[in-house]
Design a protein that fits this description.
- By secondary structure, the protein is α+β, with helices and mostly antiparallel strands.
- It folds into 6 domains: 88 residues, Roll (Ubiquitin-like (UB roll)); 78 residues, Ubiquitin-like (UB roll); 86 residues, Ubiquitin-like (UB roll); 76 residues, Ubiquitin-like (UB roll) (Roll), CATH 3.10.20; 73 residues, Ubiquitin-like (UB roll) (Roll), CATH 3.10.20; 332 residues, Porin, CATH 2.40.160.
- It contains 12 helices and 34 strands.
- The strands form 7 sheets. Strands 19-20-21-22-23-24-25-26-27-28-29-30-31-32-33-34 form a 16-stranded antiparallel beta barrel. Strands 1-5-6-3 form a 4-stranded mixed β-sheet, covered by helices on one side.
- It starts with a strand and ends with a strand.
């Protein structure tokens, strides 16, 4: 049969050429050369159908369409009479992909990455994709600091038009930062400036933080830190002229050089307000942290503009802008700022949306909101709403956004974005002392039952001295206005005969009670409750005579009707990761008249958090306790204050501090003083990880029948707190500074819990 040759097209050609021919009508289409591809696949991509009349333009379009699939290496179209013959040569398929030499990354992880760029088993092989994959693999290793990585790719042809790919990786060593040089500084020393950098040369903990490995984003952040450092010191015209990052020929060492110009140090001559102030100017002036005569500080200027924005936000001006315009007097090295205030349009909140609370009910969150739908936008109420939601303790992250409503100029929505954390705790603690030996404690608690915000807990603490069994239930919104109600059932056992520092006796107290909490302001709560306790006292042969006398007078079994009352003011910014604010508590426990025991115990606690810098927080805790008996009855000996232990005076064993009797047993006391001062800071290299925190602390305390400062005990040490994957962990390393005879020391104390 006579054939007419139409044209030949190769993959490298940008256009088609063909012999001159007369158009013809296609009576049939035949595909030749296929091995894996179905003929139907070719027909589906071929833009020519039986019955069509073909010409050069249509054939050219057909060849381009088949090439565009990426399945074929060569495509030819011929005419056999009125039959269109499609002759193709398929690209090879990838039969297998192997990766060898990879230690930094898991081979499966790398294969998944190759799959994303199109290289995977059963896919069509494309050499352009292979080159792209090599570059992507190199970039992955470079991101880990391995600049010397070498990747050798082998393509092995197999039968049935297939290939096998092998990536042989020689990772090389991680390139380390060997030097950070600052050029142009005259006022500050190099070490002062490089201390502002996260990137650093190899050190004690850089094996963990990886901060000795170069990272472009980290360097950009460090340069901004350097700029902030100078601007906060008054160097208003400071500039970074250039930055060079060089690597040695062996790809192992990196050197960073920063060239800068410090400029002059400026003082503030004056700060003025201009524009539409909305609120009295005198009120806004008080919010400005920079005063005439102060050295210029960008940080304080930014803080001032933020405070003014928030103040205007309290009036509903959500999008107020404060634009500080400087006027520099270079002769006097002074700068005058004019703060131009543009309040914008007053807006109100259209809708409050809550997302991320997969377990917690919406109503539990909404009842904490102080910003209401339909009300004027109020910055203070929004911040307070965020704090209250955060203080629930149900969420690891609380974010509040206020996007503008599209199509309006006076409405915003409030979006509360939450990340829930486990609110159930299975806690376990273990301790050791020369007195109690091993102390075990366990508990099960759920502070957000079924997402209702109600709390239920069961606690067990068992040691050779103290045993506690308690069951508690709390409804924080027993009434709609926030009155809480809770119930407690508990049993406490004390076997002091196993504590060598206290006279031998044992008690078993069974009690039950109800309690209420009444909010009286946004930050203040009054607590009160009523409970009944029955205490059984056991006397042993070696029990001190004073304990025996008490039992002879009041019996071995005593009942108490306990009234409790307290006040708390909580102004902390967060209960999970506190950085600022205060917490104050006053509690009083009274054995009511008409029972066997009539006594009182009162205590006051004050906690204060103050940020010293971006990472450092100063924390103090003070506690005062006072107790006594009344109605001609003494304070029960098992109700006195004791001092020493992981939760009171670290570094001293339980109840080892204070006055002793002739046998060397601790007497405790009716007067207690306890205080601590701590510097809280992130774990080195983990500044952004809020699950880990360190502290350096100093503890002080005394107990006795009066407040005797000459009997104060002191300790100091390092604390470690970590919300680990298996639960919260706390470790204290303490050294007693003023131990006296009879005090028992305990240098290492720790607790560990499991979250479910």
């Amino acid at each position: 049969m006579k054939k007419r040759f139409l044209f030949l097209v190769l993959s490298s050609l940008a256009s088609l050429s063909a012999q001159a021919f007369e158009p013809f009508q296609v009576k049939d289409i035949r595909v030749e050369g296929i091995q894996r591809t179905e003929a139907g696949t070719v027909f589906s991509y071929l833009p020519i159908k039986i019955g069509d009349t073909v010409n050069e333009d249509r054939v050219t379009a057909a060849v381009k369409a088949l090439y565009a699939t990426g399945f074929f290496k060569d495509v030819r179209l011929e005419a056999d009479g009125n039959v269109l013959v499609v002759m193709i040569e398929e690209r090879p398929a990838i039969a297998q992909v192997e990766i060898t030499g990879s230690k930094e990354f898991d081979a499966k992880q790398l294969k998944e990455g190759l799959k994303q760029v199109g290289l995977a088993e059963s896919r069509i092989f494309d050499r352009a994709l292979l080159e792209r994959a090599e570059r992507e693999l190199k970039n992955q290793y470079i991101s880990r600091g391995k600049y010397g990585v070498q990747i050798t790719t082998t393509v092995t042809p197999l039968e049935r038009n297939r290939v096998a790919l092998n990536f042989d990786i020689s990772e090389g060593e991680v390139a380390k930062i060997r030097g950070i040089n600052v050029v142009g500084n005259k006022v500050f020393k190099d070490k002062d400036l490089t201390s502002e950098f996260v990137l650093r040369t190899p050190g004690l903990l850089t094996w963990y933080s990886k901060n000795d490995q170069y990272s472009k984003p980290k360097l950009q952040a460090d340069l901004e830190n350097l700029r902030s450092f100078y601007l906060n010191q008054g160097y208003l015209e400071f500039t970074i002229d250039s930055t060079q990052v060089s690597i040695t020929p062996d790809k192992k060492d990196i050197f960073i050089t920063v060239n800068l110009t410090e400029g002059k140090k400026y003082k503030v001559a004056d700060i003025k307000l201009a524009g539409d102030l909305i609120v009295p100017e005198a009120e806004l002036v008080k919010l400005i942290k920079l005063k005439p005569g102060d050295v210029f500080s960008r940080e304080r200027l930014t803080e001032s503009t933020k405070l003014i924005q928030d103040r205007l936000g309290n009036e509903g001006y959500a999008f107020a802008s404060i634009n500080p315009v400087p006027e520099i007097n270079r002769e006097k090295d002074e700068v005058t700022f004019t703060l131009y205030v543009d309040p914008g349009r007053r807006v109100y909140v259209r809708r409050i949306g809550i997302v991320g609370n997969t377990n917690t009910r919406d109503e539990v969150i909404r009842r904490e909101m102080r910003q209401l739908e339909g009300g004027w936008y109020n910055t203070e109420k929004l911040n307070r709403s965020k704090q209250r939601v955060d203080k629930l303790g149900y969420f690891s992250e609380v974010q509040v956004d206020t996007p503008a409503v599209q199509g309006t100029t006076d409405q915003v929505d409030v979006e509360v974005k939450l990340t829930e954390r486990a609110t159930g705790n299975l806690t376990a603690g273990i301790g050791y002392s020369t007195a109690e030996k091993v102390i075990l404690s366990a508990g099960v608690s759920q502070s957000n039952i079924f997402g209702t915000g109600n709390a239920l807990s069961f606690q067990v603490s068992t040691g050779s001295i103290n045993q506690v069994y308690s069951l508690s239930y709390t409804n924080p919104y027993y009434t709609d206005d926030g009155v809480s109600r809770g119930f407690d059932i508990y049993q406490r056992k004390v076997n002091a005969s196993n504590l060598s520092t206290v006279g031998s006796y044992n008690t078993s107290t069974l009690g039950t009670g109800v309690r209420f909490g009444v909010p009286i302001t946004e930050y203040d709560t009054i607590n009160y409750g009523l409970a009944f306790e029955r205490t059984s006292i056991g006397i042993l042969a070696n029990t001190p005579q004073r304990y025996k006398d008490f039992v002879d007078q009041f019996g071995s079994e005593a009942d108490s009707y306990l009234g409790t009352v307290g006040w708390a003011r909580d102004k902390r910014d967060s209960v999970i990761y506190t950085t600022s604010g205060t917490l104050q508590r006053v509690t009083a426990e009274i054995g009511l008249p008409g029972a066997d025991l009539t006594y009182y115990r009162a205590s006051y606690q004050h906690q204060w958090y103050h940020p010293l810098s971006r990472d450092l927080v100063f924390y103090t805790n003070a506690q005062v306790g006072y107790a006594g008996g009344y109605d001609q009855k003494p304070l029960p000996f098992f109700k006195v204050f004791y001092l020493g232990g992981v939760n009171s005076l670290r570094g001293y064993a339980t109840a080892s501090v204070g006055p002793k009797d002739t046998n060397g047993d601790s007497l405790g006391g009716s007067h207690l003083l306890l205080g601590s001062a701590e510097i809280l800071f992130p774990f080195p290299g983990l500044q952004k990880d809020k699950s880990v925190r360190l502290s350096w602390f100093v503890d002080a305390g005394t107990v006795g029948e009066k407040y005797d400062f000459s009997e104060m005990r002191y300790s100091t040490g390092l604390g470690f707190n970590w919300y680990s994957p298996v639960g919260p962990m706390k470790i204290s390393f303490a050294k007693a500074l003023s131990a006296k005879p009879g005090d028992r020391l305990q240098s290492i104390q720790f607790t560990l819990g499991t979250v479910f």
